[in-house]
Specification:
alpha+beta; Ganglioside M2 Activator Protein, Chain: A; four-stranded antiparallel sheet; three-stranded antiparallel sheet; 3 helices; globular
Length: about 150
């Protein structure tokens, strides 16, 4: 969801099921006021217990700093590793282009949530809040179930 439509807008966010086993998510954040020289991302993980409640993580990171110093925040690195190979967020600021995530497969998500750092079964929500050039710009919520 775009918070400030003058700054950015989510052009698309799609879930595609190619067959029974291969599914993926793609998305594009269209930026209107470029260059983007400051990016802060707040991410929180929530688990469903009578509604979604905070679970383990709620952090705000300076994404421009993080891209060059990924060892400085292991939690952010864990979540960034989900999209590392399928996004154009792979360089430091400034950003003069739209932000893409192309084909985040359920296999990648399943591997990270069951093999890299196992999570207990349940329903989860990952919420991200994007603050671009000190302007709250977008909010994403990704829901998933582990069983």
């Amino acid at each position: 969801m775009a918070v400030d439509k003058d700054m950015a807008e989510i052009e698309y966010c799609t879930l595609k099921a190619v067959n029974r086993t291969y599914k993926y998510v793609s998305g594009k954040l269209k930026l209107y006021k470029i260059p983007i020289t400051k990016i802060k991302v707040n991410f929180g993980l929530f688990k469903r217990f009578n509604g979604y409640r905070p679970f383990l993580y709620n952090q705000t990171i300076d994404a421009c700093y993080f891209i060059n110093h990924q060892k400085s925040n292991p939690v952010a690195k864990y979540f960034f590793d989900f999209i590392r190979g399928i996004t154009n967020l792979n360089h430091s600021c400034p950003y003069n282009h739209d932000i893409l995530v192309d084909r985040l497969s359920t296999e990648i998500v399943n591997h990270h949530l069951t093999k890299v750092l196992p999570y207990p079964d349940g329903d989860y929500m990952l919420e991200t809040r994007w603050i671009l050039n000190d302007i709250p710009s977008a909010v994403t919520q990704v829901y998933l179930s582990l069983s």
